[in-house]
Design a protein that fits this description.
The complex is a heterodimer of chains A (252) and B (241).
Chain A lengths: L2 H11 L5 H34 L4 H12 L2 H22 L3 H5 L5 H34 L7 H28 L4 H20 L1 H4 L6 H5 L10 H24 L4
Helix pairs in contact in A: 1-6, 2-3, 2-6, 4-6, 4-7, 4-8, 6-7, 6-11, 7-11
Chain B lengths: L1 H12 L3 H23 L6 H34 L3 H6 L5 H33 L8 H14 L1 H13 L4 H11 L2 H5 L12 H6 L10 H24 L5
Helix pairs in contact in B: 1-5, 2-3, 2-5, 3-5, 3-6, 3-7, 3-8, 5-6, 7-8, 7-11
Classes of the chains: A mainly alpha (252), B mainly alpha (241).
Chain lengths: 252, 241
């Protein structure tokens, strides 16, 4: 069975899943929250403040979404929930046995799950960004949309998720209870909150902080390039560790 | 009922729930301590900064997500491998099962708040805050947060019991916690969003219920009773085959 077929199998498992609802509801919620933010504060505070700081309304909107709403902090936990959905079938009825009795290599099974987690995570990021553009249009920002800014914002988050998806994929393989990998991401989010304010040097090496760093447009002084290198390095290393662990995993 | 409670207690006794309920609130207390350290020398009332640093994260997402995780795990014990079937083949009343799970969940939530307040006191003493502990702030207000979280507890318990897929309660709990701090900033709309209640009840200096405290606590009590009752009615008629 080829990797493409395995990905198709994974997608068909999610055909009637609540995961699709999750993918639409979360960005819908962030869009609603940002719209509310703009309705209440744009004319009186956010726009004058953006002009004072020499940034466009779109940059300000990304700052609000990423820092004030804390999309960047919550994103690893959302990816953890996506991973829990993707692994649900295997963990609920011990489906590893059935899956691995098919003519597939363990490596391709793990890779297909990793790619599906990534694709759903990327969709979440993309829908969030599209929601932001809608908010800007509805609010009537005077500047035209900067696709370069949004492209960079989305791409940096995409790459930062390489690390998170690999970690969550590995945790879901190791842990029987699918809630615990989410707990790990939750703890990662709490620690990120501590590191980003008080220990920025350590924060550069903390993968759960990368989605936040990916969208940091200077507010906390991180260099977003850290999210690129960190995402790629952690993604590759953790995936390889996952492959090693999964190959050794005893599936009785 | 006592027997049902005892059974539920035995189920969680060797689970990792107690560890989670102990360590997760301590992260918030640590955050409070670190925030107060930054303020040392600049500000006099360090207790205030221990509280502020800890409570901002605790009321915004640590506590709501802790509630989500605790109640999801309690319900999952039965959802996993269709445990409901085995449970209801025993001579147990469904009401007792329902309330014993809710009570155990409550006990763990209260326990986590106790750990949190102890953590706050230790953090305050460690950073050298003055010897008179402001109990009304450090102890009383965290318990008020439990009352303000009643709608969240009721909704999370309902969703956890209703859906066998563990992702659903996690999705609801985490997704709805995200915009709560932003909505709490709105003097007009926060009252319509129960996930802001822990924030407004805890951070009274910054947000405060703005004269709507009575409405908020009434909504908390009423919504808890109504949602729990709906959950119970559905649970009594739940088809477990």
């Amino acid at each position: 069975m080829k990797l493409v077929q395995l990905i198709g199998t994974e997608l068909s498992k999610q055909k009637r899943s609540f995961l699709w609802l999750f993918l639409f509801i979360i960005p819908l919620g962030t869009t609603g929250a940002m719209l509310l933010d703009m309705v209440i504060r744009y004319d009186d505070y956010l726009f004058p403040n953006a002009q004072e700081n020499g940034i466009s309304s779109w940059e300000m909107l990304i700052n609000e979404n990423h820092g004030v709403l804390s999309w960047g902090l919550f994103l690893p936990v959302f990816v953890a929930v996506i991973s829990a959905f993707i692994h649900q079938n295997e963990s609920k009825v011990d489906n590893w046995k059935n899956l691995l009795s098919l003519p597939v290599t363990r490596g391709s099974v793990l890779l297909s799950k990793y790619l599906i987690i990534l694709v759903f995570g990327w969709l979440l990021v993309l829908f969030n960004a599209l929601g932001l553009i809608l908010v800007g249009k509805l609010t009537g920002f005077p500047e035209s949309v900067s696709f370069e800014l949004f492209g960079r914002y989305v791409l940096f988050q995409f790459i930062s998720l390489l690390a998170i998806a690999a970690i969550q994929n590995l945790l879901n393989v190791i842990m029987k209870n699918p809630i615990f990998p989410v707990v790990v991401a939750f703890v990662g989010m709490i620690v990120s909150g501590i590191l980003m304010y008080q220990h920025q040097q350590i924060g550069k090496f903390f993968p759960f902080l990368y989605p936040y760093i990916a969208g940091d447009l200077g507010k906390f002084g991180f260099n977003p390039d850290i999210a690129i290198s960190g995402g790629l390095i952690y993604g590759a290393i953790v995936f390889m560790v996952g492959l090693f662990v999964f190959n050794k995993k005893d599936i009785v | 009922m006592i027997k049902a409670l005892h059974i539920e207690f035995l189920k969680i006794k060797r689970s990792k729930l107690l560890i989670l309920a102990t360590f997760l609130p301590l992260f918030a207390a640590l955050q409070g301590g670190l925030f107060a350290v930054d303020m040392k020398g600049k500000e006099e009332d360090l207790w205030h900064f221990v509280y502020l640093g800890a409570m901002t994260q605790f009321s915004w997402f640590i506590f709501p997500l802790l509630i989500t995780i605790i109640l999801s795990i309690i319900a999952r014990i039965e959802h996993h491998h269709d445990g409901w079937k085995q449970l209801f083949s025993l001579p147990v009343e469904r009401e007792n099962v329902y309330f014993s799970k809710l009570l155990i969940g409550f006990a763990l939530i209260i326990y986590s708040v106790i750990v949190y307040t102890v953590g706050l006191i230790i953090a305050g003493i460690s950073v050298g805050a003055d010897s008179s502990i402001p109990y009304d702030m450090i102890v009383q207000r965290p318990f008020l947060v439990i009352v303000a979280s009643l709608p969240i507890i009721a909704i999370q318990f309902y969703v956890s019991m209703r859906f066998s897929h563990v992702g659903v309660p996690l999705m609801v709990g985490i997704g709805l916690a995200l915009p709560s701090m932003l909505i709490a900033n709105s003097a007009k709309y926060w009252i319509y969003y129960p996930w802001t209640y822990p924030i407004t009840s805890a951070l009274t200096d910054t947000f405060g219920p703005l004269g709507k405290a009575e409405i908020m606590y009434t909504v908390c009590g009423l919504s808890f009773v109504v949602i729990t009752a709906i959950g119970l009615i559905q649970f009594r008629t739940k088809d477990i085959i």
